Every structure is written in structure tokens, then in C-alpha cells.
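User: Here's a structure from my thesis project, written as C-alpha cells. My advisor, Dr. K., wants to see whether a designed sequence matches the one we expressed. Can you design one independently, without my sequence as a hint?
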């Protein structure tokens, strides 16, 4: 991204790779934490960085639009002006505390995709529980592939390495139930309260309702239990997508028409999930597959890519390169669509 920016290549590539718009992905917007061990840091950006990005987007000439307006432009093939949508996953309280005032200041529409079990305080944010276990201990015990194993994690380096090793081992398990059971047992053994993460970090339904009352805000669905959909049955996928919408409608009085797949990469949601979302009548559904929006996405509105504002790369020039489509275009081998 440094090369693309300082060479000016991102500007030269934009007519070819910039598409008709972009959808930004965010999770947390909050002040930086001092902890040296933060394996989930990529999911958060600071309010200062976020405001700089929003201010630059406002000055860039692109239209900052809602998901409904993006859907209208795509279905009516209105590509006269480039657009950017801002979206947040999960429903964290810092969206209300830190992101909303910035977006309100610049009059930017945005969407929050709510995992209903998080608002209900029964969700399992297993990636945070894993971080909590490793952060609080110098050694942990874990049963891996049928064998009891012990891991030393006294140093920050050991903690980072262990988190990566266990996280990707969990992601390799065949079913969502296996992942959840391993983390439940690990958390119980090391006295980490999984449920506490929802209470500490996520908005209540009352807070979500207050946010939804603002015309700038669209509330979307993000399943009930934030499951990796590719690891559950077709019946379970349909239930997660349909029931989350019903819960949100009951809580807020408005039925969501937009969806974000949990995790959202190629291993988490694919053609089966895209079809189910379309069958259930969602107007749009977003992945975390990196990319900008091209005209061809009008035929794949439940398989839309997004651009992640990543906490590991908090420099406004990186955001400029990403929104230009240059970096993701290279990543995708210059293919406009990645929907298989």
C-alpha cells in the first residue's frame, strides 16, 4: 500500500479497478488500549483515525450513502456517481459512544449489523474469550485432537504465537459446535466468563433502539448466534438468517432488509449462503471478502465485498488506497467478481 500510494499508482489504477463504489467494514471505534497483548486489535480503530477517514471521504467527491440508496443505485443501474457505504458489525457500544457522534457531525449515513444474541446477553464471543484466557494465564491446558496438551504463555511473544495457533486450529474444526465446546471448556477451566463480554461491550436493545431512531442509521441482521455459517447445516443457516430478522423486528418494530455474514470470508459464507439470503428476501448481504463494488455486482447483491478499515493499518493514506480499489484489485487478480 505504501508503494501504491507514494507512486501514485492507486490514482492511475482507479479508472480500471475503482468500480462504482465501496462498502467499508468496521467493528470497534474506541480509544487505544495500552495492553501489549491485543490479538484482536485488527478489529478496532481509534476515533481520531476514523474521523480523519470520514473527513477525507467527505472531501473526496464520493457520495456517502445508506444501504438502501446503494441498493437503489445498483438495481436501477445508476452509476453516474461513485458511492461509499459505512458499516459496523456485531453491535458494539462504542459505535454509539465514539463512532456515532463523528458520523452525525459529518451527516454520514451508516449501518449497524446486529447479532441478536449479543444484544440479548447470551452470545458467545469465543475469539475474545480465547484472548482473555491467554492474557490471564502463564500456562493453559487444552485438549487438542484427543490429546491433553499444556502451553506456556508467560511472555507477550508466547501469547501472540499461542493465540494464532489455537485460533486457526479452532477455525479448522468441521463444525461450529466443536469450536464453541472447546472454548466453553477452556474458559470454564481458566475462569473466564464468556457471557461477560456481551454485557461489557455490546449495546442493549434500548441503546440499539435509540440509535435506530436516527434517520442516518440502518439496522441490519448479523444472524442470531454469530456462527460461521459454512460450518452449520442448510436448515441452521436459514434459521439464523430468518430468526435474527424476526428478533430485530420484534425489538425495534422494523424488519431488517440487509445482512452481514459473520466472519464473512470465503471459508465462512459462499454460494449456499448467498442463495439462502436471496431466497429469504434480503435486499443486500455483505461479506468480508476484500473488494470494491463493480457494476457486475448488480447480479450478486447478496455476495457483496467490503473494504476493512483495519486496526493494524491506521493511516489515512492506506484507506485512500483501499477505497481506490487498487490494493484489492491486485489481491483479486483484477477480477471484478469473487462470488464462488
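Assistant: Designed independently from the structure alone:
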Amino acid at each position: 500500500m505504501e508503494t501504491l500510494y507514494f507512486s501514485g499508482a492507486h490514482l492511475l489504477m482507479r479508472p480500471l479497478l475503482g468500480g462504482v463504489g465501496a462498502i467499508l467494514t468496521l467493528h470497534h471505534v474506541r480509544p487505544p488500549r495500552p495492553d501489549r497483548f491485543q490479538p484482536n486489535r485488527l478489529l478496532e480503530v481509534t476515533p481520531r483515525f476514523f474521523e480523519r477517514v470520514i473527513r477525507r471521504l467527505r472531501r473526496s467527491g464520493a457520495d456517502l450513502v445508506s444501504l438502501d440508496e446503494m441498493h437503489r443505485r445498483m438495481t436501477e443501474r445508476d452509476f453516474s456517481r461513485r458511492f461509499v457505504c459505512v458499516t459496523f458489525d456485531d453491535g458494539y457500544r462504542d459505535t454509539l459512544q465514539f463512532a456515532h457522534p463523528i458520523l452525525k457531525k459529518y451527516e454520514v449515513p451508516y449501518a449497524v449489523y446486529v447479532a441478536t444474541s449479543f444484544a440479548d446477553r447470551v452470545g458467545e464471543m469465543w475469539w475474545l474469550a480465547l484472548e482473555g484466557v491467554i492474557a490471564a494465564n502463564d500456562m493453559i491446558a487444552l485438549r487438542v485432537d484427543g490429546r491433553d496438551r499444556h502451553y506456556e504463555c508467560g511472555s507477550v511473544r508466547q501469547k501472540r504465537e499461542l493465540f494464532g495457533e489455537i485460533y486457526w486450529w479452532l477455525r479448522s474444526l468441521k463444525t461450529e459446535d466443536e469450536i464453541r465446546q472447546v472454548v466453553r471448556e477452556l474458559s470454564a477451566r481458566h475462569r473466564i466468563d464468556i457471557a461477560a463480554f456481551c454485557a461489557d461491550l455490546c449495546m442493549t436493545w434500548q441503546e440499539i433502539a435509540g440509535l435506530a431512531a436516527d434517520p442516518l442509521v440502518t439496522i441490519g441482521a448479523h444472524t442470531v448466534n454469530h456462527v460461521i455459517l459454512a460450518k452449520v447445516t442448510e436448515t441452521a443457516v436459514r434459521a439464523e438468517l430468518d430468526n435474527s430478522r424476526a428478533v430485530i423486528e420484534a425489538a425495534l418494530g422494523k424488519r431488517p432488509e440487509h445482512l452481514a455474514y459473520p466472519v464473512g470470508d470465503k471459508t465462512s459464507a459462499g454460494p449456499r449462503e448467498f442463495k439462502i439470503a436471496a431466497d429469504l428476501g434480503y435486499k443486500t448481504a455483505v461479506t468480508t471478502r476484500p473488494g470494491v463494488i463493480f457494476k457486475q455486482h448488480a447480479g450478486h447483491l447478496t455476495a457483496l465485498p467490503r473494504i476493512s478499515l483495519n486496526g493494524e493499518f491506521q493511516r489515512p493514506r492506506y484507506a485512500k488506497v483501499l477505497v481506490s480499489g487498487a490494493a484489492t484489485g491486485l489481491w483479486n487478480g483484477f477480477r471484478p467478481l469473487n462470488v464462488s
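When you compare it with your expressed construct, this may help: Residues 39 and 164 are 8 Å apart (CA to CA).
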